[in-house]
Design brief:
Number of strands: 2
Strand content: under 5%
Number of helices: 19
Radius of gyration: 23 Å
Number of domains: 1
Distance between the termini: 72 Å
Mean pLDDT: 87
Low-confidence stretches: 1-9, 444-448
Helix content: 55-70%
Strand order of the largest sheet: 1-2
Shape: globular
Structural class: mainly alpha
Order of helices and strands: HHHHHHHHHHHHHHHEEHHHH
Largest sheet: 2 strands, antiparallel
Amino acid sequence: MGSKQKKKFKIDLKPTQILVLGFLLLIFVGAMLLNLPIAATNHKSIGFIDALFTSTSAVCVTGLVVVNTLEYWSMFGKVVILILIQIGGLGFMTFATTFFILMGRKIRLKERLIIQEALNQYTLSGMVRLTKNVLLGTLLIEGIGALLLSIRFVPEDGPYGIFKAIFHSVSAFCNAGFDIIGDSSLSPFVGDIIINVTIMLLIILGGLGFTVWIDILRVMKEKFNNKLGFKRTFRKFTLHTKIVIVLTTSLIIIGFIFFFIMETTNPNTLGQLSMKNKILGSLFQAITPRTAGFNTIPLAEMTHGSKFMTIILMFIGGSPAGTAGGIKTVTMGVIILTVISGVRGKEKTEAFNRTIPEVIIKRALAVIMIGISVVILVTMILSVTEVGSFMDIFFEAVSAFATVGLTLGITGSLTTIGKIVICITMFIGRLGPVTMAVAISLKGTKSKAAITKPEEKVMVG
């Protein structure tokens, strides 16, 4: 009689599912640490729901808070939040890969697939090298940012100013929006050029995306070696980088002009400021929804037009493979280009003498439609569970989904149900709606051979 073969129980998780579980684990570990009495200045536990909300906001680099970060959390609590922001901003796989490399462990195919999903890449080649470059580049940029911020914070706070500078540099680069200034975010520094410019540059660099960094460095090296002009230099960029640069620049300029016009006569925001401070305030407000969560003017006092423009900028967000949230600039760019091509009667979507594949267009449509659906659903739920105007609730829902962290003031008064709903929304927004949809799908990635169905036209428009 042959020996019985024991079947081993093996859970075969997809890379997207491992990514989701990894973020969940990080959030719950953070929540348990923040729930400890040592994490609060009053040495009392904050309660698991509020600890979970803060941890989720930090890991998902959002910045929505239920308590004042400066006053409530002890140094231990602030350090925990800082670590969660850093890991959440770069992705836990970046740190796990770095740890494996330091331990001399070989990075296997499955781990490379998870890195590929986390960094939103289309190819497996160079994943480990990309991870190293991302980590080194991040530490370098955050270090320079902290050094510049120290110029203002150290004379004001002494040695604590060094931690303050590091905290805000990491928070800005990771597009988190957490601050340890007080109740009014960066409003006390609305006219400070060093703080404003440093924070804005950190937000933009974090929101561009790691692949864009590498492409810009590659092209700049080629430019200086071959002494290329502006047009020839721009042509060397990949299509992805071109769309990111054009959309990012356009959104900043449009936002700046809009906020300057709408708020320059508003006595509660920019109206009482000098021309220099009005320019800085307008520029900062155009950049921070991309998706940092800092503010230098009181958002609740803005005009309705400015609030709605902020919602639009928050929903679009930053660029893929970066620390920012939202549906991403390239997603919106692809849809805009598709509309333009359709209006011109072209069958294919074209940009910069390149054709965008149909599968990319379908993914962009999926991201936008799922994003809109999530925001509508969350807004409807919060309209029932929370007390506040429609604009306040709508603003909060978009801010959570786009992992921005800007609020019109209702976060601290959210009900328990409201906090849980916002936590789920931040989580979906951080990982991306399509990633979440794929992760919870029960179907495997393999499909049967494609069979082309008969075509039939429908009326559109």
